[in-house]
């Protein structure tokens, strides 16, 4: 197979050139993604988080920032650095900054990984197309040959035609295997980033304002009821005062009427004595 591939490459076969070009691009993507996921984004997450937790609990933010800068310029140390800087300047924005940094970094992990299956399928289909085209040309050339030359031509044409499919299958399998390896590395790295973000949230995000708001909310909700109760009590007191005043006025009227009746009876008795 490789001899036929070398021969086709020397003869300037367009299908072979196209497949080799796509294979070169896919190989560059595969190597670049492997270096980024294994050596740039990856680190000893367990050791880094353990040291960071100890330093943050000691409230030594300057040392924590130095640790993040020395560990890496990307991945979880960069996220931690941004969150620690925000914790010093404005602690209320720590949670939003953490979510923003995590969401902004995660797409970088899977960048160009999904390009490998697409290249693998394209190369395989190109090889199949090259095989069909080569067989087509071989069968068309049989009309001008005798029986002996036809057998030789068919054998050579079939062997040459299968070169494209064979090369396409080899490159396709290589890219699919590389894609699976890179996908596993990306999933593991994503899980470590999520774990680190959870640790940072537990260390730096405080829930005290939420608890104070939750405690103040029932008091604020009960305040209108207290005001209504006080108003009702005030109205009751006013009604009671008015009732007492009315009762006092009635009693005074009754006393005046009694005095009037007694005076009238005394006058009648005096007139009877005079008569």
What is the number of E strands? 0
Secondary-structure-based class equals mainly alpha
Total of DSSP H or I helical runs spanning 4+ residues? 9
Summarize the amount of helix as a percent range.
over 70%
Distance between the termini: 165 Å
The total number of structural domains is: 2
Radius of gyration (CA) equals: 47 Å
Largest sheet, strands/sense/barrel: none
Structural shape: rod-shaped
The fraction of residues assigned to DSSP E strands is under 5%
**Which consecutive residue ranges, at least 5 long each, have pLDDT under 50?**
208-217, 249-260, 267-275
Secondary-structure element series: HHHHHHHHH
Commentary on this structure:
The chain contains 9 helices and no strands. By secondary structure, it is an all-alpha fold. The chain is rod-shaped. The chain folds into 2 domains: 205 residues, no CATH class; 68 residues.
Helix and strand layout, with pairings?
Elements: H1 2-10, H2 14-40, H3 45-57, H4 61-71, H5 75-89, H6 94-109, H7 115-140, H8 147-204, H9 208-274
Helix pairs in contact: 1-8, 2-7, 2-8, 3-4, 3-8, 4-5, 5-6, 5-8, 6-8, 7-8
Descriptive tags:
275 residues; mainly alpha; 2 domains; 88% helix
Quick description:
With 275 residues, the protein is an all-alpha fold.
